Amino acid sequence: MLRMKYKPSALAVRFAIARFPAAKAMKRLRRRFLHLAAGAAALASVTVAFADSAWSQSTGTIKIIVPVPAGGAPDLLTRLLAEEISRTQGPTIVVDNRPGATTVIGTEAAARAAPDGSTLLTNAPPAFVIMPHLRKVGYDPLNSFEPICSLVRFPLVIAVNSAAPYRTLDELLNAARAKPGGLTLASIGPASLSHIAFEMLKRAANVNITFVPYAGTTPAVNALLGEHVTSYFGNYTDVAEQTKAGKLRVLATASRARIAALPELPTVAESGYENYEFEGWFGLFAPAKTPKETVFQLAGWFTAAMQAPEVKAKFVAQGLYPVGLCGADFGALLRKQYDEFGRILREANIKAE
User: Fold this and answer.
1) Which residues contact 92 (CB under 8 A, 6 or more apart)?
2) CA nearest neighbour of 159 among 210, 222, 233, 219
3) pLDDT digit string (tens) for 181-238?
4) How far separated are the first and last CA of the chain, in Å rounded?
5) For residue 312, what is the domain's CATH number?
6) d(CA 331, CA 147)
7) Burial class, 129, CB count within 10 angstroms (exposed 0-12 / middle 13-18 / buried 19+)
8) Is 5 domain-assigned?
9) By the 8 A CB rule, do 278 and 267 touch?
10) Would residue 33 count as lying in a domain?
11) For residue 346, what are the contacts with CB-CB under 8 A and spacing of at least 6?
12) Does residue 2 lie in a domain region?
């Protein structure tokens, strides 16, 4: 006996469901089950993805690009934090020095890296708020990165030779007013942080001092020691030893607050220019589109490492002061400085060399 397999048509199924309430209920139940199953699957995939991300960060290797040669302040900072995080959190952190083109080469490499938290960048303001105004770079300074944290600030100071007659910043600036363009100021430059800070001071004090750029801080400080220039504007760490030895005299710090190493030293604002403040910083970045949970985790690790007593003491000894300005607040600082520095560069007609 031949048996025919019967396959009901779609029309017949809809008729049966419409006629029998139980069938309708079964259909609603089936839809509800599929909806819940889909939601559970999505939740499971998110959980797995997060767990996998957390696992890769806690047990894998993280590379931090430092776009300057080994031995400089950002390199020291990164290595101290890497050692502390590896000890306390587990991942292996490798420091990759990629100097060149005023940090642009290393910054471009970090911008091209996979956005998975495995490649980070330690850098200072020029790559984000100065160089993009002066030359074409292979990244968007405000959109190619996820700002993780501004890790530390470093104060800039105005110094003179100890043989100079100037004891205060006002005495130096008054001498400059009496002889427009006759006094000189040495720094790295052009288009460096110190150069921008100097131009801001000139405008705040309404003085004309001749800027003398040098290729590095060492020749600039040597020029001051040799009395070839009147003054120097740069990082306190660059003149700390000569100041302690009595060869140089620091007149003021550009920071918003006095620095721990020289508690008696007034700020520029305290010297009569209340709206003036300027600080450098070193920050940590990830490529754009790095998952938010990864950025949050990294921010937690680095801010905790900065507050470790031994690490913090080593920073302060180098003139670096922990900040921990993270996420959107750090991003807002970048945008503010990008606009402000761009305006100063245009007004002062500063060009890259």
Assistant:
1) 60, 61, 62, 86
2) 233
3) 999 999 998 889 999 999 999 999 999 999 999 988 899 999 999 999 999 999 998 8
4) 97
5) 3.40.190.150
6) 6
7) buried
8) no
9) no
10) no
11) 133
12) no
Q: Alpha carbon of 18 to those of 9, 21, 31, 33, 201: distances in Å?
A: 14, 7, 16, 20, 83
Tell me the two tokens of residue 103.
């940090």
Are 81 and 311 contacting, i.e. CB atoms less than 8 angstroms apart? yes
pTM for this predicted structure:
0.77
Q: Are 46 and 277 in contact (CB under 8 A)?
A: no
Q: Are residues 176 and 117 in the same domain?
A: no
Q: In terms of domains, do 298 and 231 share one?
A: no
Domain that holds residue 82: 57-152+280-347
Alpha helices in the chain (DSSP H): 10-19, 21-59, 73-89, 104-112, 131-134, 169-178, 193-205, 217-225, 236-244, 292-306, 309-317, 327-347
Q: Of 323, 326, 315, 298, whose CA–CA distance to 89 is shortest?
A: 298
CATH code of the domain covering residue 200: 3.40.190.10
Residues 107 and 122 in one domain: yes
Whether 31 has a pLDDT exceeding 60, the answer reads: no
Tokens of 216: 């590095």
12: Cβ contacts below 8 Å, ≥ 6 apart:
none
Listed in sequence order, the residues at least 6 apart from 18 whose beta carbon sits closer than 8 Å to its beta carbon are 24
In a domain, 267, yes or no: no
